[in-house]
């Protein structure tokens, strides 16, 4: 069974329903994982998605903040969620496809502006969230699993527009990069995007603050597709759909795609 998936921080699924529908019509991934839905589950606009064949959805939501959803053309079973760091946030949901593959959809906390947990509680929450993920994977090592989402960390030097200038900026600090690596290794995950595209600058997020985001191109690769080592070789066709960042009323993230032959 082959299938394609995409992960996209949508920054309000209700506000940006038109571009979600546009993506589904034009690109037709079998599974679309959304983060930062900013909606209770019962307010997510499912009718339009279902009309395009996405009749299956599992989600966790809350009013105005966070929220994750998995839209699927394929049958998918809700297999739960975890509240890492005890934040009470809707930041994780997992579903199992009929072929047994478990898809984890994550929205890791952004971490605020100051990379110091002593003065910035949000940065501490981010590190604690990653620790929780790492410890869970250590205790219950996943298999036949795909992890996607906005992990809010750009780990490699070529995942940011300027490694030197961003070393002290939240999302690319050495402590975050190290913690993300520990989390990935604890679960035995392979970075599918970089397995497919091993070299060169690659971004999935561009700030709203830039007057011309495309020209400035000060991006970061915050959105990821990982797979456990037992299925990593089945992953292929990775791409970031950069053009979506320029659609009408866009998210500041672009969707990241991959396909799997399983």
Describe the protein in words:
With 262 residues, this protein is of the alpha+beta class. It has a single domain (2-261), classed as Deoxyribonuclease I, Chain A, CATH 3.60.10.10. The chain has seven helices and 14 strands. The protein has helices at 17-27, 46-51, 121-139, 163-166, 174-186, 192-196, 213-216; strands at residues 2-9, 31-35, 56-60, 68-72, 76-78, 92-97, 102-107, 145-150, 189-191, 205-206, 219-220, 223-228, 235-240, 256-261. It has a six-stranded mixed β-sheet with strand order 3-4-2-1-14-13. A six-stranded mixed β-sheet has the order 5-6-7-8-12-9. Strands 10-11 form a two-stranded antiparallel sheet. A hairpin with a 7-residue loop joins strand 3 and strand 4 (68-72). Helix 3 runs parallel beside helix 5 (174-186). The chain is globular. The N and C termini lie close together (5 Å). The mean pLDDT is 98.
N/C terminus separation: 5 Å
Radius of gyration: 17 Å
Going by CATH, the architecture would be: 4-Layer Sandwich
Number of strands: 14
| Low-confidence parts | none
Strand content: 25-35%
Order of helices and strands: EHEHEEEEEHEHHEHEHEEEE
What number of domains? 1
Name given to the CATH homologous superfamily = Endonuclease/exonuclease/phosphatase
Strand order of the largest sheet: 3-4-2-1-14-13
Mean pLDDT: 98
What general form does the structure show?
Answer: globular
Label the structural class. Answer: alpha+beta
Give the count of helical stretches: 7
Q: Report the helical percentage.
A: 10-25%
CATH classification class: Alpha Beta
């Amino acid at each position: 069974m082959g299938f394609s998936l995409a992960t996209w921080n949508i920054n309000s699924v209700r506000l940006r329903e038109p571009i979600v529908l546009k993506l589904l019509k034009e690109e037709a991934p079998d599974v679309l994982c959304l983060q930062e839905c900013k909606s209770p589950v019962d307010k997510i606009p499912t009718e339009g998605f279902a009309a395009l064949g996405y009749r299956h959805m599992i989600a966790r939501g809350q009013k105005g903040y966070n929220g994750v959803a998995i839209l699927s053309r394929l049958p998918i079973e809700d297999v739960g969620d975890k509240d890492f760091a005890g934040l009470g946030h809707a930041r994780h949901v997992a579903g199992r496809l009929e072929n047994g593959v478990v898809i984890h959809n994550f929205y890791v906390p952004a971490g605020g502006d100051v990379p110091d947990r002593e003065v910035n509680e949000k940065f501490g929450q981010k590190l604690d969230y990653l620790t929780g993920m790492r410890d869970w994977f250590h205790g219950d090592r996943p298999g036949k699993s795909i992890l996607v989402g906005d992990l809010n960390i750009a780990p490699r030097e070529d995942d940011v527009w300027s490694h030197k200038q961003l070393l002290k900026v939240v999302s690319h600090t050495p402590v975050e990069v190290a913690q993300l690596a520990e989390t990935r290794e604890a679960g035995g995950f392979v970075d599918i995007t970089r397995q497919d595209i091993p070299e060169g600058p690659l971004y999935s997020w561009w700030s709203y603050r830039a007057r011309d985001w495309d020209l400035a191109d000060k991006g970061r690769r915050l959105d990821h597709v990982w797979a456990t080592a037992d299925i990593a070789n089945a992953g292929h066709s990775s791409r970031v759909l950069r053009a979506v960042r320029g659609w009408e009323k866009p998210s500041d993230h672009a969707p990241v795609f991959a396909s799997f032959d399983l």
